[in-house]
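Reproducibility note. Readers wishing to regenerate the assembly model reported in the main text can use the exact inputs given here. Chain order matters: entities are listed in the order in which they were concatenated for prediction.
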Amino acid sequence: AQSVTQLGSHVSVSEGALVLLRCNYSSSVPPYLFWYVQYPNQGLQLLLKYTTGATLVKGINGFEAEFKKSETSFHLTKPSAHMSDAAEYFCAVGRNNAGKSTFGDGTTLTVKP
Amino acid sequence: DTGVSQDPRHKITKRGQNVTFRCDPISEHNRLYWYRQTLGQGPEFLTYFQNEAQLEKSRLLSDRFSAERPKGSFSTLEIQRTEQGDSAMYLCASNQFRGRDTGELFFGEGSRLTVL
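Running the prediction on these inputs yields the following structure tokens for the assembly.
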């Protein structure tokens, strides 16, 4: 079985500050890891993914995440927050040929001017 | 290139009524997924298809729920005898599997169900 824990259901940062959204996973096999973003009244869209290879993954809009197997973590970061980053962020875990992914409960990011 | 589309976007119904949601995936995608999302939670997997075959069903999918993808294109999710606990956003997603699954899902905007 696989599971995801997102630490902090709400994170608030000032514009220009570092964004750090935490994700820890549980998986008995090598995981595929994903971050999705959901803006109000829109569908989830992929920010970035880790399947194999380089553990530091770069995504869209300046976000990146690092897969740390020893810590079973896949935290999402962005050096400088922008007002447009305000949204809900979901971490998800899957595996090769699993079909489905298992999602965390999400973290709502608020960016203050 | 059109994305995943879902219909209707909103449905309000009375307890005990049946409802049906439709999902049209991205045309070249052979896998189609249904998820349910309630307030404050992430999407929960319900079921998925590869072409017309239903490959997995969650235990969340009670006997009142049925999903089909008859021709391997669009899919329907029917809920019979709706209950207030069925109120949620029903999400559809799709992707292309070619012997190796990258796992990335392309989501529609969801169908919100409110059961009164």
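We highlight two features of this model. Chain A has a mean pLDDT of 92. Chain A touches chain B at residues 4, 6, 9, 32, 34, 36, 41-46, 49, 51, 90, 92, 94-106 (CB under 8 Å).
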